[in-house]
Amino acid sequence: MIPLSAVPDALLTTFVRDLRRIPELFAQLDVTITKTDVTRPREEGSPGSGHDRPLILNDRASDQRRALLRTLRYAAAPVPYAPRALSPGAAALAIFDQLPHTSRGRGAEFWIRSVLREITKAWGVVDAPAGLAFSGYCFDCGKPVSAPGHLRAIECRACGGEHQAAEHRAWMWQEAQQVSGTAAELARMLPHFGGEPVKAATIRKWHERGRVIGCVEERGTTFRLGDVLALHRAPARPKRARLAA
Length: 245
Known about the structure:
Blueprint: H1 9-20, H2 22-33, E1 39-40, E2 53-54, H3 59-76, H4 88-102, H5 108-125, E3 132-137, E4 144-148, E5 153-155, E6 162-164, H6 165-177, E7 180-182, H7 183-189, H8 191-194, H9 200-208, E8 214-217, E9 220-224, H10 225-233
Antiparallel strand pairs: 1-2, 3-4, 5-6, 7-9, 8-9
Helix pairs in contact: 1-5, 2-3, 2-5, 3-4, 3-5, 7-9
């Protein structure tokens, strides 16, 4: 039998999330590479119209873009086929489509981590501000606090008090897991939690198949948000491969 290797679910979830953000990443890289809003004055006497002169292109971002695109094209090409000149989005989609099979192959975890390293390097060179995440309300003044998601403790902009952002986000996340709603209600809420929308029909299908438990109420069958999110964010189940002995 051909030996199979199990890739951790958390790693697969991260890989799928990063593949879905490939178009966004390349858009950010292109902005960084061609950025012209940083300028410096022309030297006195130099030819030109007198306007400020843009800085040169970002060579580091350009190099990383080429490296990542090459990595994605090779990853999208199943052995023994040669890589094709796919667009970043098309390459990411091809990798995603093949994942139920490739995630079970020998060396799959090493391969996934290698691609993730290149994706991380690319995000590291983009010239974009960190996204803000709601981090609860300040205990001192009651004002809403938002900050980059990687920060643990921040200063409230309203009163200057120290705010434990990471603890507040973790608490809010745990509380959100207990929220219940109908399939239609949760479908409207999920884009705010999982990053990707899920259809109400999908939740109902999970219920019919016994993958999520529902509670019959007057307003309809309700489901716990945490249970639906767990299914929504789980990687696709790999199909059983027929292996020759």
